[in-house]
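Following up on my earlier thread - several people asked me to post the actual chain instead of describing it. Fair enough. Here it is, all 372 residues.
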Amino acid sequence: MTATNGNRKIRYAVVGLGWFAQEAALPSFANTENSELVALVSDDATKNEELSKKYGIHHTYSYEEYEDCLASGEIDAVYIALPNHLHCDYTVRAANQAIHVLCEKPMAVTEQECEAMIKAANDNNVKLMIAYRLHLEKANLQAVEIVRSKQIGEARIFNSVFTQQVEEGNIRLRNVTGGGTLYDIGIYCLNAARYLFQDEPIEVFAVAANNGEQRFSEVEEMASVILRFPNERLATFTSSFGGASVSTYQIIGTQGDLRVNPAYPWQGEIKHYLTINGETQERTFEDHDQLAAEFTYFSDCILEDKDPEPSGTEGLIDVSIIQALYESIETGKPVQIQTSDRHQRPTSDQTIERPPSDEKPDLIHAAAPSGQ
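Reply from S.P.:
Thanks for posting it. Predicted structure:
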């Protein structure tokens, strides 16, 4: 391990160099004290060459050379930012080489893949964390505390909308790569309902709609979901790839409500609107580098031998619920579900704040989902 001021740093390879990896992940390593970017893995030689120059990285690999990267002795962990259908394979292969894994969400496309990832991590005694960055983000963790403290009374209703335009040809619109609104953005709404209610749904129902545009020939344009939680609480959300950019949730209790808008961004301010007894308080949470927080936390877990939260089990639960939602869409009927017991939940103790990055990186052969 490399050392800085006597402190160990966890050395990372970033696997997959698409829009989010380039825009959000790569610049954030400079904002950490315990994490170091040392390798890139991509089949795009131009990306490897230009990004390695930009970030001063000496080791680049193609996907065919992934095993060489894992066995090189140069890295301690991988950050997997590949298309969803590749998460399982690349996680298992890393774990089998005793390399720790931070994997983007959704964890995988099926429950079986998630279970294989958890088993590989356990069998090889490596850390596996799923990249739910909002589990470390102050505004969302303060929302958890507001609900837990019963400031709004008993939380009864959750409602969320997460929509954006995704241009034709984007990987999120392909079925074979694990695309679709529920896997890509609906998972944020689903996960928020679970961490705000601090519970797991027991029954789900979903419908999908499609306006017939060519870009939605493989996946739904949008989906609306109802989740029934224990104690007769209800969560609803709609996710869409064909709407204007909206990201908000509201949790309603017996004595008040909290609205968070925008709710799920990876950068920029987040606002709370807390209404109790008809009076609304507004609170602004400043912009922070959420990816730097994520790398910092995962590296801490490795260095201190702590189990990360969000774990592989957290990722598995969301994927199992999303599979049940697609079953409901296909059958037109509610689906009863039983998920694993969760003993770990995000709390405000996990808050990590890193200053925002000023950098607006030039993208190499990549574009945001909207094409903008």
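The longest strand covers residues 242-253. That should answer part of your original question.
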